[in-house]
């Protein structure tokens, strides 16, 4: 296996070296509470201490305080620090979670987002007093348009799904303005779950088209559902199998021929930065996940940011108000003439937006292309490296991620994708995405991203090989038993749903 | 110039050779030539991190309305509260900041337990049994609440008080185009909602009623009347509550609300030009299975130890797909963890203390402002932490003049309520000192003269 010698020194860093102490459960903050303790302290203001009953009419006044916890600052710090030690993160180790682009989040972006002149600005302050912010937003919009090949963008949507719904409402507004009543939106069977959910909220009916044996949209099936009742199609390209939809130009032509629009789900944009642009592929509406492609930290599940860029003909419908350049150095707000309206309480997740801009500026246009190249290189290296270890359902060059399958392991040894994922945790790596896309049996979706070194990739590959070997060898602890060394072991999810305990107060 | 790619050129060559390729471009052979970008992106080349920091500092400097240079009396759902060092330090821990959605609970107990504690705190503030793991912001929580209410009541007519944040109302209008909900705005009279009796056709009867507490003008609405209206019509009662005000005010649940939504920015999150903020969502037990977004539940691991996991997953978009009632996936977890830390810092007594201090500062400010010649109250209804006044000159003009005196004076009511051009919404938090407030009133006297 000469291929194994592709890295000079094996063994990238793994989270299994982190000193997680002991196996005790961490009590909740409520259990650490002791009546009369406090951490708070406030500014001395000399504001007169008017009695509360003069401030609040009796009918509105609560009888007793909201029962929160009562802890010292020291106990508060200890509790949340201990919780943080029970949490995997990108900063701790590789996170090859397919479809999520868990790349390293540069620290300089944190510094930028905490500048007092950005973090300390009220969103309702007038344009005359927020020129820096407006310039920044306009610059980000222009940059994102260049990256995607689109004409203009809204920065309001707070996440990818919010961007999707915004895009569908733009699609609807476009058709409405032309007096065209359409009811259907097409999505491939490999699409993210947010796509069909957004379609429904946009007031459309979902029409699903199958993938063909290449893992791409089945052109014949697509043509058979295209008619004048189709408002548009939502596509991820590369798709969720990590494969580039090679027929994209034909798809665009066919959809446009019936008067439909093309929506680009930007979840996988990292693969194509500087190589090919959604606008050049024929897309009319594009959302981006800045928390994926542009490295803004995902915060344990959010915040994200899901700007939506559009082609020229859709610009009048963008959400308002939009930050605009009024002349060379003066910025303001403008309401697009046929705006679909506001989609965020304020201007979007601004402190996420500024991180993305800082990231783009550091990398530059040249750096962005390099990101896509190395992301795709890493994924293909993993695909080749694990060939023969796991099934590769669509065995051809992939883009930024590769979908493997544990189908054979399951058939021969009863080991499922879930077991592989849990066993991998024990190795000190985060698990890949499992059971997605839905069209692949026992799917293991791996997205290494460009920020993992060849040594880390090799270490990941060695671990995945070991897992497969163990599954086949059937000695040692059964894979269903893993993990052992994590803060908790396999969790009873069925019980959580059956006996719902959503709060401390629901404990019996 | 800056890069976060570890690979050396040699390593890239070795990896390409392993794949039988000779250049990085060959990796993209599957991309048809016709659509491929034929030139470099028209973006500047990369620069060093210090260069970017410097540029950002220049831009930041152009924001005059920064709280370290301009004393903030603006509110409207975004408030200049104390964010203590301890909240910044804990919420900035990279394990919370750089983790993904907790799909693998065995290695995500930190975030999951923090969310569980957050859900408990929000539920207690709401006076309702269930709270979710967060939504994008107050407005998006209101949109989700309306969707839940329509699904639960089976009626698409939604009554929204004019006292609900104007941006929330704009969002409701935007998303109603897709869902087909009929949004009817119920006007204010003397600062509080003048609820009519539903008459006429069935489709005029509301399935959902949405009210602010306190409302956008800072006034305390009669939620007893809202509950009675909902009882008569069978509508779901949704309260957009100020969660910090519950330090003094009755909870939405105690007024009989079916759903509470709110903006949680005030619990440790920076003003940040409007985001990322924190959408709060709590509901009665009857609606748990319609709850939008993620929910964390307590369970045990195979050894019987307490563990946390996202639960009732069958509600969510990745499983229900087109039948899901919400498309939310990414939420605002980091802000939820931040709020849990901040609420832990405040604790039982601190929430009362901060609400009381805000109320005192607001009443002191109101008295000082109303003593200015020509300034009159916008409404007579009782207020808590924010209030509106009528000025003798246009409010936007006054805000510009006040900036020169070092104050962000408030938010003009233009566009928020009928005939609002001379209205100004003013908020004073626990950070405002008596000296600042006195100086504010003096400056206002000059600005309206």
Helix and strand arrangement:
The complex is a heterodimer of chains A (508) and B (449).
Chain A lengths: L51 H4 L17 H12 L22 H7 L2 H4 L11 H18 L3 E3 L5 H18 L6 E5 L5 H8 L3 E5 L9 H7 L4 E7 L11 H10 L3 E6 L11 H4 L3 E4 L1 H4 L14 E3 L11 E6 L2 E5 L15 H36 L16 E4 L1 H7 L3 H10 L6 E2 L8 E4 L7 H20 L19 H6 L10
Parallel strand pairs in A: 2-3, 2-4, 4-5, 5-6
Antiparallel strand pairs in A: 1-7, 6-7, 8-9, 10-12, 11-12
Helix pairs in contact in A: 3-12, 5-12, 6-7, 12-15
Chain B lengths: L8 H10 L30 H13 L9 E2 L12 H7 L2 H4 L11 H18 L3 E2 L6 H16 L3 E5 L4 H14 L2 E5 L1 E2 L2 E2 L14 E6 L9 H11 L2 E6 L17 E5 L15 E5 L12 E5 L5 E5 L6 H4 L12 H38 L5 E2 L8 E5 L4 H10 L2 E2 L2 E2 L10 E5 L6 H15 L1
Parallel strand pairs in B: 1-15, 3-4, 3-7, 7-8, 8-9
Antiparallel strand pairs in B: 2-10, 5-6, 9-10, 11-12, 13-14, 14-17, 16-17
Low-confidence stretches of chain B: none
The CATH class assignment of the domain at 140-363 in chain A is Alpha Beta
Termini separation of chain B = 55 Å
Overall form of chain A: globular
| Amount of beta strand of chain B | 5-15%
Arrangement of strands in the largest sheet of chain A? 1-7-6-5-4-2-3
Strand order, biggest sheet of chain B?
2-10-9-8-7-3-4
- CATH fold-type name of the largest domain in chain B: Aspartate Aminotransferase, domain 2
From N to C, what is the helix and strand string of chain A?
A: HHHHHEHEHEHEHEHEHEEEHEHHEEHH
Helix content of chain B: 25-40%
Mean pLDDT of chain B: 96
Q: Structural class per helix/strand content of chain B? A: alpha/beta
Total beta strands of chain A: 12
Q: Examine the secondary-structure arrangement and name the CATH architecture of the domain at 140-363 in chain A.
A: 3-Layer(aba) Sandwich
% residues in beta strands of chain A: 5-15%
Largest interface: A-B, 216 and 214 residues
The major beta sheet of chain B can be summarized as: 7 strands, mixed
Mean pLDDT of chain A: 94
The residue fraction in helices of chain A comes out at 25-40%
- What is the CATH architecture descriptor of the largest domain in chain B? 3-Layer(aba) Sandwich
